[in-house]
Every structure is written in C-alpha cells, then in structure tokens.
Amino acid sequence: MNAASLLHLLQFASPALPIGGYSYSQGLEAALEAGLVTNADSARAWMVRYLDEVMAQWDGPLFWRLLKAFETRDAAAVALWSECFLASRDTSELRAETVQMGYSLTRLIAGLGVAEAHFKLYACLGDEVSLPAAFACAVDALDIPHEEALLAMLFSWLENQVLVCVKSVPLGQVAGQRLLLSLRPDLERAAAQARTLPDEALSNWSPGLSMLSMRHEVQHGRLYRS
C-alpha cells in the first residue's frame, strides 16, 4: 500500500470525517438502557457478537461487493447491493442513519472533486445513497486497496462502539483502548469472512438488534440518534 493510498484511507476512515458518525450508536445505547451492556466484559461480548452476526455476515460482505462493483464499473451491481443494504435497515433509525451519512459522504466527495468519474454510477442509486455505497465510491476513486478499506470500515464501526461505551457505560479511556486492542483478532476474522462469504450465505438475521433499535426510537433521554 503506497503512502498516498494510506493517507487517503486514514482521512476517509477517520471519526473526524464530517458525516456525523459520532452521533449514532447503532442500537448500543438501547442495550445500555436495557442493562445488556454494563461493563468492559459485557461491552466486549456485545461487540464480538455484533461483529460475528452482523458485520461479518452482512454489512462487510455487501461493502466488499460494492467495492468490486465500483472497480468494474458495474452500475447494475452497484444499484443492487446498495438497495439490498437499504432494504436490510429494518427500523426507521437504522435506515435514516445510513441514508444521512451516505448523503453527507456523497456531498463531501463531490465537494472535494475526488470522484467526478463516478457520477454516472451514482445516478443509478436514486435519491437515497447508502453509506457503504458512498464509501466504496471514495475508495475506488482514491485507489485504496480493497482489503485495507474493508478493515478500515470495520475498525471505524468498532471504534465508534468503543467510544459510546467510554462515554456511557462509562469506561475509562485506557479501558476503552484496551478493549479496542483486544478485538483485533475478531476484526481480522470478520474481514476474512466478509471477503469470502458466498451470496447464498449472506444473512442480516439479527432480531434482537432490531428490537433494541425500535425501543430506542421511543427511549427517553437519549444521547444518540440510533
């Protein structure tokens, strides 16, 4: 991986990217409210299960397919996998999250002028662009290697989950970093599965997460938007 690609990846996977990622917990705040996550051990168990059952079996594999679709300029595949991702957001908050962040990232890369050759591919997505589709577009435009991009996507999700726990469990800063470091093997395993999972094995079956997300929609005194 050359220096330019690495720097581009660090920029677009950064929590400082102005697309609003810090304002979402992806169901974790509801799990905290329900007492499912109360300390470092239960936080780790939550993240490992989320990685194994959601990120490795659905979000990661769809992002991988979007990377390949942008690489081959396959507009039909770009539209298909982005639509599949949107359809899998089975609560209003989770759908609003990916649409809002996808829109913000789309506006950002357009403003930076880094993906002008991809606008025809964007046209096939309609009014709603999922975050994975927008990120895959940026990855292709900036010539970032796909394996590293997938790891960065997973790490960005995990880092945000840890930050939610640091603020809300609460965990100490060192405990949060220890948790993040301990999950490296789980991230690598999830990325490997996401790259190799066949279409017929894809699954977004996570009813518990869906229930928590629906409960969060009416949760009183929340800090996060999902």
Please characterize this protein's 3D structure.
The protein has eleven helices and no strands. With 226 residues, the chain is mostly helical. The termini are far apart.
Describe the structure concisely for a colleague.
It is built from eleven helices and no strands. It is an all-alpha fold.
Share of residues in helices: 55-70%
CA-based gyration radius:
17 Å
CATH superfamily membership, which one? Urease accessory protein UreF
Derived structural class: mainly alpha
CATH class: Mainly Alpha
Poorly predicted sequence stretches spanning 5 or more consecutive residues: none
Known CATH architecture? Orthogonal Bundle
Whole-number total of structural domains: 1
Provide the CATH topology. Answer: Urease accessory protein UreF
Tally of alpha and pi helices = 11
The geometry reads as globular
